[in-house]
Amino acid sequence: MRDHQHSKLRRFVFDALLLEDSFSGLEREGIAVRVTTESSIAERVSKLDYDPQIIADAKKMASVFVSFFCLENSVRDLIEERLRDRHGIDWWEKKVSAKIREAAGNLKQKEEINRYHANRSASLIGYTTFGQLALIIIGNWEDFTDLFPDQAWVNSRFRDLEVSRNIIMHTGVLPPTEIDRVESISRDWVRQVG
To answer: What is the residue range of 69's domain?
Structure first.
């Protein structure tokens, strides 16, 4: 039941992303489809004295960021739900390698020094890197074999996505072919995990 609800939520989020992308495409063609009363951060920033090309690139990459945000967080949710359901509330200590737990704990501790700043996550899995998520899945393969054809499938998708993800997260611009790859792999992931 819970997996079914999680699957429906993932589908809803994915459909919403597709709709948002369609709306954005219409707006790029000059067709207004949304009514706004407040300006977004992006709109306020674009009014500043930045190079128009930088602003255009940022707007182009915004939808790719949304895709990565949803995918990465849904992978975290999948791992946490799957391992907690199968191994109990102490799944993090039991099923995640000491190296990954230590790295996540160190990052959390480093960020806690700045108490004025919002926490990244309430859960330690929120402090893992994208690549570490694949390692957690592979390290607990027996808990994920029903979802994926094989470990190579998981590794190849994470490896391909990680390169593009790092470009986006460090304010780079992906060419259209790479954006297509991100979209294709994201779609494959959603179809594969349901």
So the answer is: 2-193
